[in-house]
Design a protein that fits this description.
This is 35058_t:CDS:1. The chain is mainly α. It is built from 19 helices and 6 strands. A hairpin with a 7-residue loop joins strand 5 and strand 6. It is globular and about 65 Å long. The N and C termini lie close together (12 Å). The site of NADPH dihydro-nicotinamide-adenine-dinucleotide phosphate has 20 residues, from helix 13, helix 16, strand 6, helix 17 and helix 18.
């Protein structure tokens, strides 16, 4: 019955028109400025701020020293091994900081289109400009790393050889950047939606859109550091494998491809990001800072680390049956196709509606990435809701596709350790929580239209 009503309404509004997005209104402002305690409130987030880094060290310790076996976290020997293996050396800190500064330099100076974000309620509906030079920066990073490696100025294998100390440099940076952003925001009086609980505000953040000149720091941190680093961890392990065994196994090549697809997608579709919820609603606190600077690159890579350690321990890379290898590749690539096109269908639809769509020819542009004359529902309080393309099939199909990819990253390692399934399992929890938050928020924002949708 509900589907029928949606179809009917969608039929009614078949052709998207430029600039039909609702203007900013009081309803938005009230919803976006509302303080909602999430993640168990101040106590819950304090536990997470301590628990996340501890968990990262524990899982890495088990992978690195115990072949992925989950040893007792109370084992003193484990922690002394972790302490020695992940001590934050100056060398690793220099690599990490120089990498971040290089990416910041590219984000500032490389060419790219300027895209308007969605109306920001804390700025009374103002739309901010975002310089989307992700593609140019990504290609510049690839060329630079190739030159550095080829001439021996910085061999990429140093990344996997210094994984522990690099992770510590990232963890420390996550805390330092959180504090610096928080304090400078308060000093400038730019804090927004504050709860009054220090730990909660540190976790969720004080600043909504902190900027360094023309670089939006939140968008920079979300896409320019985590995924690029993750990719280079896999590249580093693949080169190491080649140096040790004279070839790159299909499993390691899989991880390089998987991480390449993710980082490339973030760069090539960057112009879709300014209008997303993360940019307009989420603040730039520990949750986003720590997770992007340290959490994503140093936990989403467990499959790569496992494959790398395993090949060294067994003196040969893991070999799966042909069937299993093809299955993993098929799962990854089909997941990627749905994920890429579903995200671009929705984001481009919104950009067209907002009058800020710019066609891009970045690689790869997949068939069905942009919908022509899609069906949608007009809403009273928000932007129109797309009901065509993938969005006519399921409400969060891009999450399902992302999970298909996440599970394929685990499957390629086999079933000898649970740690390589950390990312898919954790990701199920993250996405479930995001769905819950988003549904609640959209139900408030769109009211009856959301029910209809
Ligand atoms: P969504 O892309 O689902 O964005 C949700 C927002 O989209 C809603 O608040 C609403 O915004 C708008 N919206 C929802 N349905 C429709 C519709 N039918 N038509 C038009 N607009 C709609 O959320 P995320 O930002 O969470 O995810 C983006 C991508 O990033 C996903 O593919 C996800 O898998 C990925 N991701 C990956 C993570 C990782 O760690 N690997 C972490 C988080 C996300 P509004 O209120 O403005 O209308």
């Amino acid at each position: 019955m509900a589907t029928k009503r949606v179809q009917k309404s969608a039929e009614h509004d078949k052709s998207p028109k430029i600039n039909t997005a609702p203007t900013f209104n009081k309803h938005y402002e009230i919803i976006d400025s509302e303080i909602v305690f999430e993640f168990g409130g101040p106590w819950g987030v304090t536990a997470m701020m301590i628990g996340f880094p501890v968990l990262m060290y524990y899982l890495w310790g088990c992978l690195h020293f115990y072949r992925g076996k989950l040893v007792s976290p109370l084992d003193g020997q484990l922690w002394s091994q972790i302490f020695k293996g992940a001590y934050p050396t100056w060398y690793a800190t220099k690599i990490y900081v120089l990498f971040c500064l290089f990416e910041l330099f590219l984000a500032y100076f490389m060419p790219g289109p300027i895209v308007k974000g969605a109306p920001v309620s804390s700025l009374k509906g103002k739309k901010l400009d975002y310089l989307c030079n992700g593609v140019a920066s990504w290609y510049a990073t690839i060329v630079t790393s190739f030159v550095l490696h080829y001439y021996g100025w910085f061999r990429l294998t140093e990344i996997i050889d210094n994984f522990g100390p690099l992770m510590s440099a990232a963890v420390i940076s996550g805390f330092v950047v959180t504090l610096v952003i928080y304090v400078t925001t308060i000093m400038q009086g730019k804090q927004y939606r504050m709860s009054g609980y220090l730990m909660y505000d540190l976790f969720m953040g004080a600043a909504l859109n902190p900027r360094l000149g023309r670089v939006d720091l939140k968008m920079f941190a979300e896409i320019r550091i985590p995924w690029v680093l993750l990719f280079y961890i896999s590249v580093s392990a693949a080169i190491k494998e080649y140096e040790l065994f004279g070839y790159i196994s299909s499993s390691m090549a899989f991880m390089v491809l998987a991480h390449f697809l993710y980082v490339n997608a973030c760069a090539k579709g960057e112009e879709c990001i300014p209008t997303t919820w993360d940019m307009t609603y989420e603040k730039f606190g520990f949750m986003l800072i720590f997770w992007n600077l340290a959490g994503v690159p140093f936990t989403y890579c467990y499959a790569t680390i496992y494959l790398h350690n395993n090949s060294i321990d067994n003196n040969q890379p893991i070999q799966h049956s042909q069937f299993w290898t093809y299955f993993c590749y098929a799962l990854l690539l089909s997941g990627y196709y749905i994920w890429d096109t579903a995200n671009s269908q929705k984001n481009r639809f919104r950009m067209i509606i907002n009058g800020c769509y710019i066609p891009r020819y970045t690689f790869p542009q997949l068939p069905w990435g942009t919908l022509k004359n899609p069906t949608y529902i007009k809403t009273k309080y928000g932007s129109p809701l797309l009901t065509g393309g993938w969005w006519g099939i399921a409400r969060k199909i891009h999450y399902t596709a992302d999970l298909m990819m996440a599970f394929s990253w685990g499957f390629i390692t086999g079933f000898n350790t649970a740690i390589t399934y950390f990312y898919p399992v954790f990701f199920v929890a993250v996405l479930t929580h995001r769905v819950y938050r988003d549904m609640e928020r959209c139900a408030k924002k769109y009211g009856k239209d959301w029910e209809e949708y």
